[in-house]
Amino acid sequence: MASHYFSFIDLKESPDCKQFISYWRRWAKEELNTDVHFVAKADELDKDFEEYYNWGFDSVFSNRVLAGARIHKNSLHNRLRYITCKLLGLPRLVNFKEIIKQAQNKYDEKESVYPGILCGWDHSPRSGKKGIVVYNFTMKLFAEHISGILQLVKNKKPEHKIIFLKSWNEWGEGNFMEPDMEFGHSKIDTLKHCIEESS
């Protein structure tokens, strides 16, 4: 296993990843006598996974935690809510309970796929009416979400028991673990409790 990790966040803004990876692998081997483990972030689209491996990535961060943004297609209630938000010029509202249902899929059980935990989301400060706002975020649902993700990596090899936490302090997207006025230390305590329960 490589001793250095390099994660690509936005592959659309990274031209010719294949050449980039090839160059850094060669440099790391020649200069440091080591290798680099390259991780690609895949958003929602399953077909992207195989493409990233073909580019030379070793693994994929399965960023399905925001796949819930597409759930307006899943039921009449969600469609009506989506249309209402559009007509009123409001950000898209997504229930956290729905998001955690979409946060896992068959790919996450693979050794080379790393799942993610979402600790809230409100992109409206940056994106306005084009943003996504997650509501119904509770510690009970957060614990269910964490436990489900931990279960996915339980039987993987130790070097692949990797989970991305989204995020520590992304305040501009309402996506943070740091203590705040609403939840205090509850998010951190819930994560700690779930990890201890799964060990």
Describe the structure.
- The chain is α/β, with parallel strands linked by helices.
- 39% of the residues lie in helices and 19% in strands.
- The protein is built from seven helices and nine strands; from the N terminus they run E-H-E-H-E-H-E-H-E-H-E-H-E-E-E-H.
- The strands form three sheets. A five-stranded parallel beta sheet has the order 1-2-3-5-7, covered by helices on one side. The protein has a two-stranded parallel ribbon with strand order 4-6.
- The radius of gyration is 18 Å and the shape is globular.
Radius of gyration: 18 Å
| Secondary-structure-derived class | alpha/beta
Strand count, sense and barrel status of the largest sheet are: 5 strands, parallel
What is the CA-CA span between the terminal residues?
23 Å
Going across the biggest sheet, name each strand in turn: 1-2-3-5-7
Mean pLDDT: 85
